[in-house]
Predict the 3D structure of the following.
Amino acid sequence: MPPCSSIKCQLICCPLQTVTCSVTSLYLVVESASVFNFLHIFWMQSCIRLPYIKSALEGYEGQFSKLIKDRYLDPLELWTDDEHLNKFIALVETSVDLDQLENGEYMISPSYDTTLSALKEEQESLEHQIHNLHKQTANDLDLALDKALKLDKGSQFGHVFRITKKEEPKIRKKLTTQFIVLETRKDGVRFTNTRLKKLGDQYQRKLEEYKSCQKDLVDRVVRTTATFSEVFGSLAGMLSELDVLLSFADLACSCPTPYTRPDIIPSDEGDIVLEGSRHPCVEAQDWVNFIPNDCKLVRGKSWFQIITGPNMGGKSTFIRQVGVNVLMAQVGSFVPCVKASISVRDCIFARVGAGDCQLRGVSTFMQEMLETASILKGATDKSLIIIDELGRGTSTYDGFGLAWAICEHLVEVIKAPTLFATHFHELTALAHESPDHGPHKKQTVGVANYHVSAHIDSSSRKLTMLYKVEPGACDQSFGIHVAEFANFPASVVALAREKAAELEDFSPAAIIPSNAQEEVGSKRKRESDPDEISKGAARAHRFLKEFSDLPLEKMDLKEALQQVKELKDGLQKDALNCQWLQQFF
């Protein structure tokens, strides 16, 4: 049977109508949980129980009975008739020696071939003669059959007699005159005579002929059974699909927090809206009380989402759960949401986690760049892109520059729905970029800022993660607070706060309570609202781009100075409404 993973891959890549059919199939399975739970637990464990699987499916009489008949019952009826699977079963029952199966041996039945049957009869006749000779020898030597005188069979001597060393003195004279002693060992004396040796040699020859005939017949049977590969392939594919859907249904029915049936929308229309979404793997852990979040990737408004917030605040979990929910919906599963509407994606690109590849000689940052390059080359406007912490493996300026350029490319060129989690808070300025500035007009897909919220106690300075994703930008990562969680020495934490305050030139995030901002940000040089910073940074970026677009090499000095003055005056005028920009004048 094909592995379930391959069936899921086929479901992911299948057209929209097939995805819809899979979700509908799953819905009927969930609807008839008792019937299909019985089917999954017991009958799906063995393909020889296909008639019972068929009976269980026939027991369903709901609104989707026609779908069950067309997709499962009719194919089962076809592939299990007398021309297909039943014919194979008859071949097995005829050709395989079922008596030997109890001993774990798979052999061709003697009755399957006349030559094999004749060889088997000759073998049995020789065995009977050998056993009669054993009885006669026991009487001649006056030894108890099988107790004192045993009949052994080995690869070295074939059939031989064996007595214990204790019995050997009693018949020593006869042994030397009437028999041939083969060996004396701790477990006894082995000997034979002319009659036994002759019968043993004949038996061995017949055994070799029997094995040779068996081998020829096995080859014939295998060639015949190979013609049934299409039957087993079709049955395996159908049962694997049913197995996957039953597993999805079992999960949807047994999960403590309900799953929901997603609405599937064509890829060139609609949005990706997940209300109360959860991560199915994280919420399954016993000690986790998962906090659900909404995700609304809306064309022209929030198609590209920049997610900022504290370390350990839940950014990575959030973007991954969105990817998992979309993936589950497209393979035909119910999703861990209150409500879900999925615009079908042709691919999900994910650049998450960090790690090098020593065997390939690839550093952590290079691995990150390679993964990002594959996204930029392979993604389309019908893909879903998930990026976590891009550009952190190099210098701050290089990392930010790469992150900004990649974001602009995703927004302006690829235009795919994207979740971009980052600690480069300056990237939030993308949401305030004018779509029509500069010589090249931008067709924006809609950039929105979101952050994961947290709370700082004003007295204890304890940071509490709220794990809620809310609109707006955040300008702090709270890395120092996480270091406190890790039990850093107090002196190290204090010095870290001091140096961070010296370097930063903007205030803490809006998610910090107002009564805690003075304490945490008291040493900051300037205080500005995060949205004001984003707008100011976007205006400054526009100024720099307009300046870089000036054809200075074609202007004389006077004209160049005039153009630069106009740009500067425009920026200075806009700075009157932006405290963050005023620091540059």
